[in-house]
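Bench notes, afternoon.
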Amino acid sequence: MMTEPFSVRLDVRSYEIDPQLHLNGGFYVQYADHARFACVRAAGVSVEDLLGSGLGPVNLETVIKYHHELRGGDEVDVSCAWEWGTGKTYRVHHLLRRLDGTPAAEVSHVSGLLDLKTRRLIPDPDREWRARATDPELLGLKP
């Protein structure tokens, strides 16, 4: 099993800054989304193929915990760690860290896979992700 979660490095851009001169709150969620989709691609899953098969990933709940501000010009590492249970949902946790290791924020999602025809969550999302991944360990799944 992997010891370190998947991570991407992002730059805080000037147009993402709010009037208090720190990263606007909505961008924390966008950074988490970017890291999650980069992780999915790195695991070998084609989101286009997933959608083409009639399934779409959805977030049912998003929680942001702020620790230290990010400002324009900062670089941030955004990790992506998946947590699987036995139901229709799973969790994805993101830790945003400054390059010095200081935690800036945590973003956590409760997610599922939506059947795009019936508009209902499928019962075994882990099975669908595992079947599509060439490296399921990146998604927290055993091969």
